[in-house]
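Quick one, tokens below. Sequence please?
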């Protein structure tokens, strides 16, 4: 068969013939066939209406309420959290995703891992521990969650717990990832398991949620194509801003540093520490000196805050389609990637790995600069001592102090002796600087570098470090490139000047321009000292970017040629711009003054001249420029002299003036109508016929939001970075350093990089503590009911704390009634003492943070509905009393109150008996003895204090119990205990308990509770009460109708007394035999009746069948 297939000729297309012509003709002819109208019409109006409504509903469901985009131009990295039970493959997934984006491996995962995934997107991968505190903190900061599920086991309790936490705190994007699919041997069972898990995942997240399948692991990695598909889906995800995060700033810490004074630690190793936290600002703008909450530590105040260079910045050029491997950066300091390695007691900087943190060109310069510093044999102080001071640009290098002292000859003698040494030192310094030039790789500079002392550049460098902030080396490189271009332009101009033009002599060309330039050059030499003192850049700060030719000429006036030789200096700084604290960096002369506030202020002591080239202006243009310089005052264009003269010459008549005004009004009205038409047409509110059509409300709202977002971004764009931070704070996307004092030493001692550290900003109102009321519901999966005044751990806002809630239900009249236990499947109110949090914030209640329990740990969820310094929760109280004297509808009650003052407080209050008779409190009894004498009561016991008189709607009995329903205000304990799990060791971190109940303590210590006799159930013995027969008066009986009159039955004749007969034995036998015969007869009659019924029913059926047969014959 293989030989036959090999010998088969390949198919050849026809080059000519009828078939080919037919195909060409059919392609050319575009015949439009008429459609059958009836074939495409809908058959049912209801079905068509239902289909249209379904399509409209589907489109409307896609719409969301538009929100103002408050994100910055350079957004922070997207936080991608990997969550799942232990041994499910979280670390392996992060390693594979990092390798997919960066084409390089990472060995360990500790803390956040930030990478540059594309030209406009950065990702921060974070692994979630199997710890409840970590799950809560990650749900508050994660933008995307990869929820990993072991398909061989199914959904575990940790997955359901995280899903319910995320619904309250985050509502972030969730992607499911199924692993361990290679453990299924049967393909049919695998497909069935996938379907079951997908339906369950859709039920808990939302229908249609994305679920990825990772088939198996090969060489400790997942399949490359599966990871690639997952990475592509992560890259194209769109994220909707959440309300809590868009109104609160926060930082996910990726690096910490203990900057406490070592002397304090040596004196007391348990003293509080000063810690620096590093990370990207997220959410909204972060203000300095504000209060923050460290999740797991407590509330603190920022001592100092500053922005740094972005360690994981975007590439500079975005013209390329994709990123190079050099531009795919990674920054994971806690994992030992990115040049910084964090150990327990030290921080190590690896110089060979710095290129992973920044682009190759910049990091290579710094790395080589460090290597050069290590190889230097002469210190900087020695070079400064050996250098010379030069005050003026045209002055020869030398020492100026000798001129002031007048010892010229001595200095000349000393200079002749030590001249060789100075030349050698100068040559050595020049060689070292040239060596630095070779290391840095700047080949564009052609002039040799000169080493100057710190008197010329050192002070400016110190100011540079303070004012530049996070300006990159790119600004310096751009400035160098601009200067090189200007030098090239000057060279080209000089070459053009020496050329012949139309055969004429060179010196005759452009004599006027040369004269102007020579004048300006002389003027420049006059102001040489001023330009050196104030700098050439001060002149440029006052110029507008869009200047005219005269202003450009003014700018050129202050830029001397001698400054070009001093463009490049060695700058000594304190490492403000370098990540590794670069001691020497290359800078151009244009970056000396940077953005310091002192240099931005206008200098009033110097004069700024503006020079114009009047030779280029015509005479008429000169006249137009100077004609208004000889008069004073302000006037309109209509009041100009020429206009007034023309009006006097024309002298309109009143009719002409009136006609002219009417025409002007008509033209103005037409102009307004045209502007209105153009505006409506441009906005899309006019259709093709010219009629107005309202624009879609959703589109209009989106346009308004987009305009607001653009306005927010453009408000502070023109300001320098330092001033912008002072006005609006640190915007999202900046990499900041926060210094916080008074951190407990246990945080550093038990620091674990795998636990997330979240620094959340607090608003002004959130710094207070008061009574918070939340709309609360017990979770249906929690087995126990929640009891009032039992301690519960809440997660609210950035905080996790323990408090004592009081549960209540609001009645129809608005009263908040306290309840002892939470109701099942119903919402209630929970009031507790805690931090004031904005309304609508989600809250999660946790029974226990221990990880060794198998039960569902979330006890309830809810949201904040009311915040106040006070509250109004009442509890029902029944006051019980008994009557001691009854007179018709009036009764005297005692035992309900203890004094007449209490009775006076409850006068006219409603009371009732157990039988339902309602009454009202009247007055208290002042003299009980007089009362008893009046009613001739034989009561032996004295009347108790607090007795009162009450009236009822009917007469009550002495055995009735009278009670009154009252409400009294309950108190909520002011207990607030933050969860400080980061201060515990790793072994006991997840077992934070806080306050325990008395029942838990007795259970742990096996202590029996004392029994209260009043709480025991006792048998109640109630005697049967006998009531007297009802007696109706005779007069009333006469008036009653007959059916209601009592019926008196006649006297019943008593039964005749029978005499007992004692039978003989023979008589007893006869009577017994007769009874037996009677029984046999009765049974025989019964059987005969049964047989007769059966015979009768059979006979009826025969008759019915015969009748049917007869009826059938008649029909035939």
């Amino acid at each position: 068969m293989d030989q036959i297939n090999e010998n088969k000729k390949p198919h050849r297309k026809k080059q000519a013939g009828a078939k080919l012509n037919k195909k060409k003709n059919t392609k050319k002819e575009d015949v439009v066939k008429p459609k059958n109208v009836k074939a495409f019409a809908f058959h049912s109006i209801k079905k068509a209406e239902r289909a249209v409504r379904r399509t409209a509903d589907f489109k409307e469901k896609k719409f969301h309420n538009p929100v103002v985009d408050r994100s910055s131009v350079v957004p922070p990295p997207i936080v991608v959290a990997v969550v799942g039970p232990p041994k499910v493959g979280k670390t392996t997934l992060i390693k594979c995703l990092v390798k997919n984006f960066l084409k390089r491996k990472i060995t360990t995962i500790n803390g956040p891992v930030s990478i540059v995934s594309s030209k406009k997107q950065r990702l921060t991968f974070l692994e979630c521990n199997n710890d409840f505190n970590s799950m809560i903190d990650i749900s508050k900061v994660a933008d995307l969650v990869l929820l990993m599920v072991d398909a061989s086991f199914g959904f575990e309790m940790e997955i359901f717990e995280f899903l319910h936490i995320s619904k309250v705190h985050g509502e972030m994007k969730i992607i499911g990832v199924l692993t361990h699919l290679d453990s299924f041997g049967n393909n049919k069972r695998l497909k069935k398991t996938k379907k079951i898990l997908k339906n369950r995942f859709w039920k808990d997240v939302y229908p249609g949620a994305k679920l990825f399948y990772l088939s198996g692991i090969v060489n400790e990695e997942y399949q490359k194509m599966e990871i690639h598909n997952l990475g592509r889906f992560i890259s194209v995800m769109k994220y909707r801003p959440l309300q809590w995060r868009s109104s609160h700033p926060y930082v996910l810490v990726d690096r910490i540093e203990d900057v406490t004074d070592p002397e304090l630690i040596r004196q007391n190793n348990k003293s509080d520490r000063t810690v620096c936290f590093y990370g990207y600002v997220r959410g909204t703008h972060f203000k300095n000196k504000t209060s923050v909450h460290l999740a797991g530590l407590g509330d603190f105040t920022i001592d100092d805050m500053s922005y740094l260079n972005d360690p994981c910045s975007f590439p500079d050029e975005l013209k390329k389609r994709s990123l190079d491997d050099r531009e795919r950066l990674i920054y994971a300091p806690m994992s030992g990637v990115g040049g910084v390695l964090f150990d327990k007691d030290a921080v190590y900087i690896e110089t060979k790995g710095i290129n992973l943190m920044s682009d190759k060109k910049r990091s290579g310069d710094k790395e080589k600069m460090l290597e050069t510093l290590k190889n230097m044999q002469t210190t900087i102080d020695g070079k400064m001592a050996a250098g010379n001071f030069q005050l003026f640009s045209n002055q020869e290098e030398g020492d100026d102090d000798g001129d002031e002292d007048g010892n010229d000859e001595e200095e000349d003698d000393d200079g002749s002796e030590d001249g060789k040494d100075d030349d050698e030192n100068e040559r050595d310094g020049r060689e070292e600087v040239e060596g630095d030039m070779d290391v840095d790789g700047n080949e564009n500079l052609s002039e040799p570098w000169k080493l100057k002392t710190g008197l010329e550049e050192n002070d400016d460098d110190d100011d540079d470090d303070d004012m530049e902030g996070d300006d990159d080396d790119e600004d310096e490189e751009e400035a160098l490139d601009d200067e090189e271009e200007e030098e090239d332009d000057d060279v080209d101009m000089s070459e053009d000047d020496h050329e012949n033009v139309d055969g004429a002599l060179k010196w005759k060309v452009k004599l006027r321009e040369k004269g102007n330039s020579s004048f300006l050059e002389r003027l420049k030499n006059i102001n040489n000292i001023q330009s050196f003192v104030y700098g050439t850049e001060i002149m440029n700060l006052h110029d507008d970017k869009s200047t005219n030719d005269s202003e450009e000429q003014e700018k050129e006036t202050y830029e001397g040629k001698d400054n070009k030789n001093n463009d490049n200096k060695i700058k000594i700084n304190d490492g403000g711009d370098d990540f590794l604290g670069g001691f020497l960096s290359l800078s151009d002369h244009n970056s000396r003054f940077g953005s310091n506030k002192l240099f931005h202020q206008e200098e009033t002591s110097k004069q700024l001249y503006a020079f114009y080239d009047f030779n280029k202006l015509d005479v008429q243009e000169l006249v137009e420029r100077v004609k208004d310089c000889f008069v004073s005052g302000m006037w309109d264009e209509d009041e100009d002299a020429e206009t007034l003269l023309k009006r006097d010459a024309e002298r309109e008549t009143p009719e002409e003036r009136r006609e002219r005004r009417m025409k002007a009004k008509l033209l103005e009205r037409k102009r307004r109508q045209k502007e209105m038409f153009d505006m409506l047409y441009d906005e899309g509110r006019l259709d093709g016929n010219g009629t107005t059509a309202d624009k879609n409300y959703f589109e209009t709202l989106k346009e308004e939001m987009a305009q607001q977002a653009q306005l927010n971004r453009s408000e502070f764009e023109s300001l320098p970075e330092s001033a912008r931070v002072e006005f609006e704070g640190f915007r999202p996307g900046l990499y900041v350093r926060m210094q916080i004092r008074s951190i407990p030493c246990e945080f550093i001692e038990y620091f674990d990089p795998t636990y997330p550290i979240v620094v959340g900003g607090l608003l002004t109102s959130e710094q207070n503590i008061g009574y918070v009321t939340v709309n609360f519901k017990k979770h249906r999966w929690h087995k126990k009911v929640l009891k009032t005044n039992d301690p519960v751990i809440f997660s609210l806002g950035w905080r996790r704390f323990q408090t004592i809630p009081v549960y209540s239900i609001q009645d129809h009249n608005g009263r908040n009634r306290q309840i002892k236990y939470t109701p099942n499947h119903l919402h209630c109110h929970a009031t507790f003492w805690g931090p004031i949090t904005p309304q609508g914030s989600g809250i999660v209640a946790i029974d226990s943070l221990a990880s060794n329990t198998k039960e569902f740990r979330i006890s309830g969820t809810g949201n904040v509905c009311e915040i106040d310094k006070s509250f109004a929760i009442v509890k029902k109280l029944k006051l019980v009393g008994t009557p001691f004297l009854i007179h018709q509808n009036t009764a005297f009650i005692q035992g309900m109150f203890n004094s007449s003052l209490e009775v006076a407080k409850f006068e006219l209050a409603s009371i009732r008996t157990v039988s339902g008779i309602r009454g009202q409190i009247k007055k208290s009894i002042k003299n009980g003895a007089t009362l008893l004498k009046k009613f001739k009561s034989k009561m032996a016991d004295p009347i108790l204090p607090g007795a009162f008189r009450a009236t009822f709607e009917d007469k009550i009995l002495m055995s009735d119990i009278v009670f009154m329903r009252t409400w009294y205000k309950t108190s909520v304990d002011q207990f607030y205990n933050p969860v400080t799990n980061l201060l515990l060791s790793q072994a006991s971190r997840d077992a934070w308990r806080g306050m325990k109940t008395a029942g838990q303590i007795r259970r742990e210590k096996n202590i029996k509770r004392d029994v209260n006799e009043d709480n025991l159930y006792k048998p109640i013995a109630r005697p049967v009460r006998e009531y007297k027969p009802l007696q109706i008066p005779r007069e009333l009986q006469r008036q009653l109708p007959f059916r209601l009159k009592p019926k008196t039955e006649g006297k019943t004749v008593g039964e005749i007394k029978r005499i007992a007969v004692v039978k003989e034995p023979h008589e007893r036998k006869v009577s017994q035999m007769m009874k037996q015969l009677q029984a046999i007869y009765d049974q025989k009659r019964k059987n005969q009746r049964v047989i007769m019924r059966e015979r009768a029913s059979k006979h009826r059926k025969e008759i019915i069948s015969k009748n049917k047969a007869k009826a059938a014959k008649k029909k035939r």
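Residues 376 and 840 are 63 Å apart (CA to CA). The longest strand covers residues 874-887.
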